[in-house]
Amino acid sequence: MRIYIRLTKNEEIVPYEHNAVLTGILNKWLNDSDIHDSLSLYSFSGLRKGLTSKKGLDFPEGGEWFVSIYDSHILLKVLKRIQENADFAYGMKVKEVTLCEYPAFGYEWRFRLATPILIKRTVGNKCVHYIYQNEGSNELMTETLKRKMKSVGLDDSSVSVMFDKTYVRAKVKLMSYKGIKNKVNWCPVRISGTPESIRFAWDVGIGNSTGIGFGTLL
């Protein structure tokens, strides 16, 4: 399920690369006891509705953020923790939280991205990043999704993820997280499978490192 969070205006300029701050906020709300393994069964957007400048983002009318979590019980705990402490970051506070139900997914769905997709594997002693033009990228995204599905007892041999290479504005860029540069993909994806599998993907995101703000679906 997904929650949309409305925020008050900021008191400090928000840097463009603010994933690490958002990760810290969400981890505070999640609490370590709610996360049972290393797989991130959640995803989140960047801050939205901001005005751009050379220095960063400004939110004179307030901002918006959304978080998707597969386990509804954990999501309800997050809602409770937000109510207990509305402080956010950059001088912003949580003003309103809206719970969003699942869209009426069918057996195939095209998703735009809220955050870029990161695909990586360790080859020998080297971390290799894959881009949407690489052969095998679709299989790697599908592999990661199936591994997460298996961790919660979902089995769908038909599920598959593929980049929509017909999208003419697809691009690859470098995005830093705590000083580490990652080669990421801004390209929509098409997911085929059961509606339950597609709902799962909508919650947990696609690719690697969804728990630090990559691969979030719109």
Describe what you observe in this structure:
It is a single chain. 23% of the residues lie in helices and 28% in strands. It has 218 residues and is α+β, with helices and mostly antiparallel strands. It folds into two domains: 2-100, Alpha-Beta Plaits (2-Layer Sandwich), CATH 3.30.70; 108-212, Alpha-Beta Plaits (2-Layer Sandwich). It has a four-stranded antiparallel β-sheet. A three-stranded antiparallel β-sheet has the order 7-13-10. It has a two-stranded antiparallel ribbon with strand order 3-4. The chain is globular, with a radius of gyration of 17 Å.
Report the principal-axis shape. globular
Query: Can you tell me the CATH architecture of the largest domain?
Result: 2-Layer Sandwich
Order of helices and strands: EHEEEEHEEEEHEEEEH
Radius of gyration: 17 Å
Distance between the termini: 13 Å
CATH topology annotation of the largest domain: Alpha-Beta Plaits
* Strands side by side in the biggest sheet: 2-5-1-6
- Return the domain count: 2
Condensed summary:
23% of the residues lie in helices and 28% in strands.
List its salient traits.
single chain; 218 residues; three-stranded antiparallel β-sheet; 4 helices; 13 strands; Alpha-Beta Plaits; alpha+beta; 2 domains
Q: What's the layout of helices and strands?
A:
Elements: E1 2-7, H1 19-30, E2 42-44, E3 51-52, E4 57-58, E5 64-69, H2 72-84, E6 94-100, E7 108-111, E8 119-123, E9 126-130, H3 137-151, E10 160-163, E11 171-177, E12 180-186, E13 189-192, H4 195-204
Antiparallel strand pairs: 1-5, 1-6, 2-5, 3-4, 7-13, 8-9, 10-13, 11-12
